[in-house]
Amino acid sequence: MNASLRYHFHESSERCASTLQRKTKYRKRKMERILYQAMAAFFISCAGSGYAWAAAEDRPADAYTLDDVVVTASRIPTTRMDTPANTTVITAAEIENNHYADVAEALSHVNGVIISNGASGNDTVVRLNGDERVVILVDGRRINNDQGSMTRASANLASIASMKNIERIEVIKGGGSALYGSDAIGGVINIITKKGDQLRTTVDVNAGSWDTYNYELSNEGSQGRVSWFVTGGLQRQNHFNYKYNGSNHSMPNSDQKNNSFTARIDGEIDDRSSLRLEFEHKSIHGGAYTGVFPDFRFNGKQDELFNNVALSYHFKEGTRTPGFLRVYDNYKWTSFGLDDAGAEQSSPFTTKTVGIEYQNGWTLGKKNTLVAGAEWRQSDSTNSDKGYNGEKIRSSAIYLQDTWAFAPKWSFIPGLRLDHHSLFGTHWSPKLALNYNAGNKTQFYASWGRVFKAPTADDLYYSNPLWLMFGNPDLKPETGHTETIGVTHKIDDKTTLGASLFWSEIHDAIYWVYDGATGRTDAMNIAHEKKHGFELSVQKIFDQHWSMDAGYSYIKTNAQGSESSTDVTGKNQQPNGYRLGVHFKKGPWKANLMGTLGSGLNRQFYNTRHYFLLDFNASYDITKNFTAYFRVNNLTNQEYQVSPSTNWAQYPGKGRFFQFGLTCSF
């Protein structure tokens, strides 16, 4: 083909491609206009058919209360004043009033909680007491898996499918290995879902900055002895903006296209027993935007698929010692490195976890409450491009805990767990806790426990010669101990104070350590890791309209061992953390202003020494069934990072974000 023909052929091809793109964009915009018109008509109809809002007697603004019952800390229903742990509960009302986009956003406003990114822009991990080794549960079912992300975390908060089906989130800080085993070093987070009640359908539509728009539909109801709660959602976002070195940037390759679906079906057998079927699906298509700024971008895509299913038989419901028998199957699939055409540049990696869990409890007289259980779990992980295929890891455990009310205001809680790991043998995890409840006004608590964390499949087998990153099959498991002491004091019905101190020491702590001389990053055991810190908090109700909460947390981390690993000491993401929330509620109006401040950051690993984030939201109940809301995150467009920088990557926090939404129930 001569040059002239090649030129005309190329020009014709470009015109055809341009015409096709214009037609595709036109059809897309036309479909979006039709969808928006349909949604607008629906909401206008919803508003017109709804009941007119009528001002009811104003109640006190939402605030933390001490008589909440929690189930996570002791695996049985216990009032918070009788729970010997630093405990926070995020209620369904808080989630609804703040219109949180996801679990990570809700947790980020809890005192002392740190949210960070893992090995890609789609991985979101949580730290409790400065530790990523945290067990994440959905209705008591573990979603952690044995395929990590070169961090100590083994659960991705981005996998949580919906906020609409969440009844409450219980956050328990401090070691929980005696009841929950591996990963429960920093603490435990239990996401408790809603059981279907009266027949109701809810639609939530919102749009915001960066071409963000979300649609979510939920339906719940009950008929006879069967109830259901179902949600489905679509989330779309273009490249987000961020601030770096004082100027604004757009993050290439950070667009997101996510879909989600959940279903919970409950069938009552009798007044004390039931069957429950749960399914959660989340698909993520987004950019892996790690990189050092502004010189390098990783231009691949990352697709993730999460499918979890569980079947549970619950018995002795409504008693002090409920029990269950559960089987579950959690599946995670990740294709990392998709090019712009969607073709895979590397083989996908998967992990499939199946498990069986049983728990029962007994009351012995008036003073002793026993809970005991057994677990079996097997994971099958594949990352064939990175060195392993079909690696099976099995673990089994039995546990026993007694709550002994040996005096009117005192309780002593000894517990013991025996774990057997297919690669690392048998480990004992004892725990001792003491609680003093002085007439529901003041609580003192203390706990000590041994902890155990096995290496993940990536820790053991990962091999990436291109990036010079290698796992280590000779790793030892992490072991150690944690301690917590604390006090909660209710000054009056409107004011609550809390304080807690914690310590932890981990032997053979696993770190991915970069060697500047060779350019390699290897998983290795260092001698030991120490953490300590404390928290202060206050909740105050001023009147029926106004309330506030505030908190301060301090975290110190030291790691000793290999010389190349000593830099982890300066990577503390929030040495000093401050939280402030101001809440307003009157008639149809609700508003919340929340601040997060981090200071004392090491400039070697962070581009700023401190940051101050402000989030604001407001909502108005147009009718009984129709609500409009507005949110803005990072109001002042602060510059900050969501993870410490490494030799090749940084994770900037998102800039100012606006969102407007409408919800309708019928």
Approximate strand percentage: over 45%
Q: What's the CATH H-level homologous superfamily?
A: TonB-dependent receptor, beta-barrel domain
Q: Which oligomeric form is depicted?
A: single chain
Distance between the ends = 66 Å
How would you state the average pLDDT, rounded?
84
Low-confidence stretches: 1-28, 49-67
Q: Tally the structural domains.
A: 1
Structural descriptors:
22-stranded antiparallel β-barrel; disordered N terminus; 5 helices; 39 strands; 666 residues
Description:
The structure is a single chain. By secondary structure, this protein is mainly β. It has one domain: Beta Barrel (Maltoporin, Chain A). It is built from five helices and 39 strands. The protein has a 22-stranded antiparallel barrel. A five-stranded mixed sheet has the order 3-8-9-6-7. Strands 25-26-30-29 form a four-stranded mixed sheet. A hairpin with a 7-residue loop joins strand 1 and strand 2. It is globular. The N and C termini lie far apart (66 Å). The N terminus is likely disordered.
Strands, helices and their partners?
Layout: H1 3-49, E1 69-70, E2 78-79, E3 86-91, H2 92-98, H3 103-107, E4 114-117, E5 124-127, E6 134-138, E7 141-142, E8 166-173, H4 177-180, E9 187-193, E10 200-208, E11 212-223, E12 226-237, E13 241-244, E14 247-250, E15 256-270, E16 273-287, E17 301-315, E18 323-338, E19 349-364, E20 368-383, E21 388-407, E22 410-421, E23 425-438, E24 442-453, H5 457-461, E25 463-464, E26 469-470, E27 478-492, E28 495-507, E29 510-514, E30 521-525, E31 528-541, E32 546-560, E33 576-586, E34 589-599, E35 610-621, E36 626-633, E37 641-643, E38 651-652, E39 657-665
Parallel strand pairs: 6-9, 26-30
Antiparallel strand pairs: 1-2, 3-8, 4-5, 6-7, 8-9, 10-11, 10-39, 11-12, 12-15, 13-14, 15-16, 16-17, 17-18, 18-19, 19-20, 20-21, 21-22, 22-23, 23-24, 24-27, 25-26, 27-28, 28-31, 29-30, 31-32, 32-33, 33-34, 34-35, 35-36, 36-39, 37-38
